[in-house]
Amino acid sequence: MEESTEITVEAKQPAKKRRLWLRILCIALAALILLVGFLGLVFYSVWNDEIATVSSFKKLRDRNDANEEGSVYRMDVKGGFYFDKLLKQGGVKNDSELIQFITKNITRGLIKMSIKETDIGCSSFTATAKNGDRLFGRNYDFAKTNVCITLSNPGGGRHKSFSTVDLNYVGMDIDKDVTGLMNKITCLAAPFAPLDGINDAGVSCGIYMSYQGGDETVATDQNDPSKPDITSTTMLRLVLDYADNVDEAVELIKSYNLHDSANTSFHYMVADASGKSAILEWVPENGTDSTDNDGSARKLVVHYNTGDDYLGVREANADFQWITNFILQPGYYEDGDEKAGEDRYDRIYERLKATDGVVENEKAAMDILQEVGRRTWNGGGGVTVHSAVYNLTKKTVLWVANENYGDKTATYEYSLITGELKTAE
Hints:
Layout: H1 2-56, E1 58-61, E2 72-77, H2 83-88, H3 95-105, E3 123-129, E4 134-142, E5 147-152, E6 161-166, H4 181-186, E7 196-199, E8 204-209, E9 229-231, H5 232-242, H6 246-254, E10 257-259, E11 266-271, E12 277-284, E13 298-304, E14 322-323, H7 342-353, E15 358-359, H8 362-371, H9 374-378, E16 383-391, E17 396-401, E18 411-415, E19 421-423
Parallel strand pairs: 2-5, 3-15, 9-10
Antiparallel strand pairs: 1-2, 3-4, 3-14, 4-16, 5-6, 6-7, 7-8, 8-11, 11-12, 12-13, 16-17, 17-18, 18-19
Helix pairs in contact: 5-6
């Protein structure tokens, strides 16, 4: 009996040890799960807006390399994306500072970004539909590139908006689709790089190359130490997020030093649902194209479509306005100087003047954009990457990719009221 008892006791010892190690393993595993869950919770709490935004990034239309057409994407931006923080710190003086800000605040230093130089055409105009709706038309002329329809609803007193972003600006290869998590994370910079858009107050804006600086393009680079700083595309974001009308947009812009993006000179247009519009140009006082070689010496000049301040070269007190790629300021050019885009400017003027700026509807406004589209107008050499007609009264968008006018699969409609984006099919 005693021998049997000893064997039983000894047999129980390994079993106790196994149970003890099993308990330790379970505790360790539970602790690990809690740690992973905690880290996941911390990660999500820090990155939740970025995660939701990246998750919304999707392709709407495939590229067509044979026809020099990039892909079209959509991204729904969740949260404010630190734009208030950028303004509170005094803005940024150039694209490098903007990239540093984006990298630090959005990707936490994990992703490197870039903003590339550009050479773009573009046209815009305002018009009135027969039913009284105010319209803003815009062509973005460039070359094959990927674009992203960027939908923003930051809250906190900022406006909801629709904008179009050329993903080449944020470093995406124009000859490839945007694939992979890292590239999609890089596209989180898109809210800082709108080219045109509309907000839910019925304010639209656009950017247009102005080819300033004589033989060499010189970017505007103001340096008033009493003012904060802003770049071209962040200025458009400022308008879309905060402006209720043209007057507010102009006052906001006046309060900043402008530093043109992409080492390129631009001028800008803004319009609202009242029918008021303005073209904003930065030119040297009493300067000309041949002497405009110092971007820091330029001052803001505002050309309104109506009133005594209008300084257009075709039509005063018109109920419409239009822009291409040359400076409107009287005296800037000498007789015989080439004015980039003047032929398109004249065609738009002829079409609008014939009807006193009234068009049938958004489709008729799109027809004017088609007439001066890059393929139609130049017969080749690049493409109008997108054409948009913004209804400032109804807060809706009619948007066409890569001059595929009449192709319902390439035509998108969006409402800032309902938030619905759909093809015209």
